[in-house]
Specification:
316 residues; alpha/beta; 7-stranded mixed beta sheet; 5-stranded parallel beta sheet; 8 helices; 26% strand; globular
Length: 316
């Protein structure tokens, strides 16, 4: 079997730093490209090198600003296809519309499905994401979707904290299965928080099921935006006698006022990955960012050489 052509890697304006880190791990330079925003809000993208007949990998998180970055993603896919790229693999570290994965009240859009249709219509051949909010989102696409997991990277950083008598806390029942996986890797027990959000203000009431008294609690989740759920959960854990509380979250989205909320909370450290980088706020000293560039680099290398992705995550 002949060696494939070298990888062509590009980064959109949603992921320039992560794109550069992935390229460094692969021993590559990012492809030359140009993105412009006109005064009327229109976007313009241009591929500044030859991609004809080549397999292209585009890195673009779709957040801050979500709509602009998602439209930019579609334009990039179209530009590569019109430049005669053989395939376009979308590396979407954070899929902002993944939260809209179901019709949970009358007369609402299933936004993740609309976005999936748009990505396909633009011409993408494959999608690689990380810690999708719901695994069934993979089924929204008719093209291959690889869902990578940040758990190994986050667990390594959790273990570096040297906490004793650790208890892993799921912030809701829906994340309990993932919390059990964290606990299995860390050799810890599990507690589950039950939250109720009555309004659209991203504030939740929290109850905790499990023994946390006198123990170091780590809250795990796939993303946080306002930090409201994490803080409410941490407050309840401290009320129940936890010795300390910290958190590990894949996607640190961090909207306005999230850092003030985190700084006032009993959470002493919040571990996040670098899937989101265009934050509208300055990050708190409590935020500890770890890179998932090595995971994405390995996944890209395996896809390019037609090798298995699942072997990267034996715990799943």
């Amino acid at each position: 079997m002949s060696e494939p052509d070298p990888i062509l890697l590009f980064a959109g304006s949603g992921s320039p730093r992560l794109g550069g880190a992935i390229a460094q791990h692969l021993g590559l330079e990012l492809g030359r490209s140009d993105t412009r925003r006109f005064s009327d809000g229109n976007l313009f993208v241009k591929v500044d090198e030859n991609v004809r007949g080549r397999d292209v990998y585009l890195i673009q998180s779709t957040v801050f600003p979500s709509n602009d970055n998602f439209m930019e993603l579609l334009f990039w896919i179209d530009a590569f296809k019109r430049a005669s790229a053989r395939t376009v693999t979308v590396i979407m570290p954070y899929f902002s519309y993944a939260k809209g994965d179901k019709k949970d009240e009358p007369r609402v859009s299933i936004r993740a499905r609309v976005c999936a249709d748009a990505i396909e219509a633009a011409g993408a051949d494959r999608v690689v994401a990380m810690d999708l909010h719901a695994p069934q989102i993979q089924g929204f696409f008719r093209i291959p979707v690889d869902n990578l997991y940040a758990m190994s990277v986050l667990c390594d950083r959790i273990e570096e904290q040297g906490r004793e008598d650790l208890v892993v806390v799921s912030p809701d029942a829906g994340y309990a299965k993932q919390a059990r996986r964290y606990a299995s890797i860390l050799g810890a027990s599990v507690a589950i928080a039950d939250k109720e959000r009555k309004e659209y203000d991203e504030v939740a009431q929290v109850w905790v099921v499990g023994d946390v008294s006198g123990r170091d609690a780590v809250i795990v989740d796939d993303f946080t935006i306002s930090a409201g759920t994490l803080v409410s959960c941490a407050d309840e854990l401290m009320r129940r006698g936890a010795r300390s509380v910290f958190a590990a979250v894949t996607h640190g989205v961090f909207a306005e006022r999230s850092m003030e909320r985190l700084d006032r909370s009993p959470i002493d450290k919040l571990i996040v990955t670098d899937t989101v980088e265009n934050h509208p706020v300055s990050l708190s000293a409590k935020v500890d960012m770890v890179s998932v560039a090595p995971l994405f680099a390995e996944a890209i290398e395996r896809i390019h050489r037609r090798r298995s992705i699942s072997v990267m995550f034996p715990e799943f």
